[in-house]
Amino acid sequence: MKKVTFKDIANESGYSKATISRYFNDPDSLTDDAKEKILKAINKLRYKENKIARVLANGKSEIIGVLIPDLYMHYYADLLTKLLVCSDKYGYKAIVFQSLDDSIKEKDYLEELLKYHVEGVIVISHVISSKELASMNIPLVTIEREDQYTSSINSNNYEGGLLATKHLVDQGAEVLIHINSGLKKESPAYGRIKGYRQVVKESKLESKEFNANFGDRYEEIVSKFKPIFNEIEDKYKGKKKGIFLSNDTIANVFLNLIVQKYNTLPDDYLLIGFDDSPISKEAIIPLSTIHQDITAIAEKAMYLLNEKMQERKKRHPKKDETIKHEIVDTTLIIRDTTRGKYEELD
Amino acid sequence: MKKVTFKDIANESGYSKATISRYFNDPDSLTDDAKEKILKAINKLRYKENKIARVLANGKSEIIGVLIPDLYMHYYADLLTKLLVCSDKYGYKAIVFQSLDDSIKEKDYLEELLKYHVEGVIVISHVISSKELASMNIPLVTIEREDQYTSSINSNNYEGGLLATKHLVDQGAEVLIHINSGLKKESPAYGRIKGYRQVVKESKLESKEFNANFGDRYEEIVSKFKPIFNEIEDKYKGKKKGIFLSNDTIANVFLNLIVQKYNTLPDDYLLIGFDDSPISKEAIIPLSTIHQDITAIAEKAMYLLNEKMQERKKRHPKKDETIKHEIVDTTLIIRDTTRGKYEELD
Predict the structure, then answer these.
(1) Does pLDDT of B49 surpass 70?
(2) Which end of chain B has fewer surrounding CB within 10 Å, N or C?
(3) Are residues A178 and A288 in the same domain?
(4) In angstroms, what separates the C-alpha of A72 from chain B's closest C-alpha?
């Protein structure tokens, strides 16, 4: 494939090379007539579309940036998958950065993204404050992170906590227990705890919260879980325990500890997790859980970002000062760990 | 932040705007003296580095493309995570595309990537043939896919199959069984089957292969697995069964079926999976498996791609005609499903 040069376009259009260069770099400095003639020449030469040149010409890179924490957690991998599908629908490519909980990197990456003229950014990682993100003055949407100053899409975590805990009450729980993995107050996921507490308050049942920073490593989760399991076994012997765990990974650990001890999930245990991640199905006894609609989260995030990006491209864009927080419904998924009566495994 | 324009640089350097434009678009047309003076002016004005302009100036986009199938399988999510870390080390950003098994999309994406002047591509998705990939004439490395015409990094799947099956023999298996999920002959993962067959041949033990296309959905895997489980139960009653499964997800399904029936993994079952993915640890009985060194795979892929990209940037690049296939060692991970004698769960 022969490369078409500025010189070829100049010869074809009758303009100088410098003018052709201006066409790509500073098109507003040319008359409409000149622009039209040059465009015709380009089309005639079937100038291999050069996205980079087009970006310089009109500022439309057709690239968005996506900042994620990491893909170890299935939730993030799933969310990224769905975001890539959605951005593609809007004709955008995605440059993906993972910040691995490093705030310096996260800032560097954001700087880098601006240099590439990305048109917008979706931020899932949670190191930089929303205030700082907002100050960047670029179309931006955050997902499931602190979002005081940014437009955001989040799951209805509060509703999820309510649904999970109410279901435990409905199934006959006599004690309500919540176990979570170091959720922070400013994160949207903290709503799960609030939902749980609301039901505790209404039901007036005995209750207990365990808040442990389990970390990411499976072995670490297991070792930190054993004393919690023992405490629950001792303290609530004979009582029907309704246990809501803040994610399916830790719910599976707890389930395994119980099954390893009893060969089954005894009648006096009701367990429910959160996320509807693959492990909830793959567990030895399929886990009840709260479904997060990740497809809807990705679609709404991309829709909102696209609105902002299109506004920015207008000749006289409105200043984007409205902060939108959208909430996506969660659903109760009843599987086998909240049946109240689970038959012996056989 | 005030935007510095070509006009500002022109005023500062004493050259015309057209010359400044040439500096970014066709730098070779300027004298070294002119280039140096313009650069000084830019630095003085602390011209906000414009990557896009630099790409036009020197062809270095500092972007690579990564084509993945999807992130549902933990293996791909993990590989992408590691590739993002490695590309960052070499100063590259990654545009990520997922092709979702759609060959038309995959071709479109590759076309798109070329338009963005990506410097190289890593291809993990497996729809387009390596012959077609090679014809694109861009630095390119493939991972764990058909690779006849492309440089590639793969796990030593054959060695993994050998290690797994030998371990079953060592633990006293009387029958060797292999269950795999529709592996294709041309894929590197097919080496797992070859390794298994080699040990079957040497050991002269009775053996049986099951080849089922289980699909991606957990429920589908379970339903397709039940008849296989029943057949094994009937046919090899009382014999010590050494079962090698082609990945940990299906190994976990099989383990759950056994434990749901017997409350334990009986003495006459030895199970080993492949991948060392999280589910192998999170299973009700931790699964023996073959570890793939994904960090090493990502590092070698990026090293090889970088070599090719650097060569391409030279004034007189050598034509890249050597195809390299590098192999990364696998390791046997012994957990609890190949102990031969597993105590009752309690």
Answers:
(1) no
(2) N
(3) yes
(4) 7
What CATH number corresponds to the domain at position B249?
3.40.50.2300
Domain CATH code at residue A50: 1.10.260
How far A205 CA sits from the closest chain B CA (Å)? 31
pLDDT of A71-102, one tens digit each? 777 888 889 989 998 998 898 989 998 877 67
Cβ contact (<8 Å) for B218 and A282? yes
Write out chain B residues lying below 8 Å of A85, CB-based. Answer: 98, 100
Does B337 map to a domain? no
Does any CB of chain A come closer than 8 Å to the CB of residue B97? yes
Q: Which residue of B has its CA nearest to A110?
A: B93
Chain A interface mutation, best of B22, B71, B90, B344, highest count of A Cβ atoms under 10 Å:
B71
The answer to whether A291 touches A276, Cβ cutoff 8 Å, is: yes
**Same domain membership, residue B41 and residue B97:** no
ipTM over 0.90: no
Within-domain flag for A334: no
B277 touches chain A (CB under 8 A): no
Provide the number of structural domains found in chain A: 3
Query: Which pLDDT does position A54 carry in this prediction?
Result: 62
Q: Which domain holds residue A91?
A: 63-155+295-328
pTM of the model: 0.81
* C-beta atoms of A279 and B282 within 8 A: yes
Tell me whether B323 touches chain A (CB under 8 Å).
Answer: no
B54 and B102 in a common domain: no
Tens digits of residue pLDDT in B267-322: 999 999 999 999 999 999 999 999 999 999 999 999 999 999 988 877 777 776 68
B137 and B205 fall within a common domain: no
| Residue A339 within a domain | no
**Residue A343 located in a structural domain:** no
